[in-house]
Amino acid sequence: MVKARLIPFFVDSLFGFLILVLALEVALAKTGNSPNDQFTFKSEDHIRLQSIPSDDFTSLIHPQFPGHRVRIKKSNFCDPTVNVYTGYLDVNAGAKHLFFYFFESRRDPQNDDVLMWINGGPGCSSSLGLLMELGPCSIDMRKNASTGSNGTTWNPYGWNEAANVFFLDQPVGVGFSYADYGENIQTTEDAAKDVHAFISIFFETFKEFSGRALHLSGESYGGRYLPVFASEIYDQNQIAVKEGRAENVINLQSMIIGNGNTGVEYLYPGKYEIECGVAALEVPFQLINKCVRMKRALPRCQHALKAGCFDQFDLMNCRAAIDFCDNELSKPLRDSGRNPYDVSKMCVGSDLCYAENEMIAKYLDLPQTRELLGVSPHSPSNFSACSDAVGNGFDAHMDKYAIPTQYHVAALLDRGVRVLIYAGTYDWQCNWVSNKAWTDALEWGGAGTYVKEEMRVWAVDPDREAGEVKGNGFDAQNGKGGLAFVTIKGAGHMMSLFFSFFFLAA
């Protein structure tokens, strides 16, 4: 095993500049609720973001997306040190409304890159990442005596420390996003079209961001979302160039996935290693008898998945395989009472197993918070961290299994988009073992050199080993992207604050 300092490794072989972006966290707040917006701008009007007022919503339209509109206004939410904006992307002639938060960079908003963060689920709000992980403020778990409710505390390690950051509640039905007539999105491919429209309208209208590097980031089901979203952006860039619209090209630079579910065929073997092996804890926590049963079921599970889901997708056969695998290989963890997102802890609170999630929902449901954010009165009256309806819709289409998402990752790497995969070692749900397995097996132009790379120990300082890392660098001459895989020792699923270590070490 090779030991290396983290920062020199990345500077020498991969994401030097990107780590600075990732060292920061972002948040976004405030949404539109008025059908009669005070201002409407076309993309060619080229207004500046700083000119957006706080007393009413400004509407942005783009000729390339006649059925879409962005409503945006300034807010005082979360981070008093920067300009904060919130709003809605109105889709399908205003029938669907996606809520977003945008925080300017604390360092240099006029020059720093743009980063978008999306939580997983499918169906979970990005406000969880904002207020629990990487936003410029965090939920305050101490009860406020004067209001009887929780507020927020400033986060000095928010990702907007060095990047302009979006948080987007997508697809429709997630968080404060809503539909007028019950419309919904049930596949990642359909969701990608709305995300591309939103980013395009923003970059085209606010020309100060034109050409600025864009990084897509997220966690969990983001391992399915982000490769498809990035592919949609890349493909639409090629169409724009072909049609003589080179000025509409989005400068997509990288994709960052934390504890993602990208290589789903490797998830169950990884779950077994976390639960019954020593991939997470020094002493396995699961009962021996259950581990023996799981070990015997694993080959049958993998065979059924390969036949019904991966070699040739068949909805009924794939569903039967998943039902068997979940019953034999997932149920024991749930029965144990352990937190599937951090097996070193027991589950507390709701199904998401973190008390913070319930506090975030209560805080975002406060009338004064919704007013501060500009939440539409048509948005769901009770904020939910994750939407069962959205999750069930994606599950009905077996969205996670229908298309191998790692194919998108390989294609992006071969077209020069850099990719960072990171994972906490205590996560069971989207564990580091499976993430390492699929990245090692990935077929792409740089695979030959990537698989030869050894895992290296990385450290915040000489006395603080933090995990392991491997990767190969960006090949500018041949236009190949770089791939890096990082583990964070002792971290769980929702651990994006680990990137504050980079900030401290830089």
From TrEMBL:
The keyword Transcription regulation does not apply. Residues 1-29 form the signal peptide. One of its GO terms (cellular component) is fungal-type vacuole. Its EC number is 3.4.16.-. It holds the Pfam family Peptidase_S10. Keywords: Carboxypeptidase, Glycoprotein, Hydrolase, Protease, Signal. InterPro entries: AB_hydrolase_fold, Peptidase_S10, Ser_caboxypep_ser_AS. GO terms for molecular function: serine-type carboxypeptidase activity. One of its GO terms (biological process) is proteolysis. PANTHER family: SERINE CARBOXYPEPTIDASE CTSA-4.1, SERINE PROTEASE FAMILY S10 SERINE CARBOXYPEPTIDASE. This is Carboxypeptidase. It comes from Marasmius oreades.
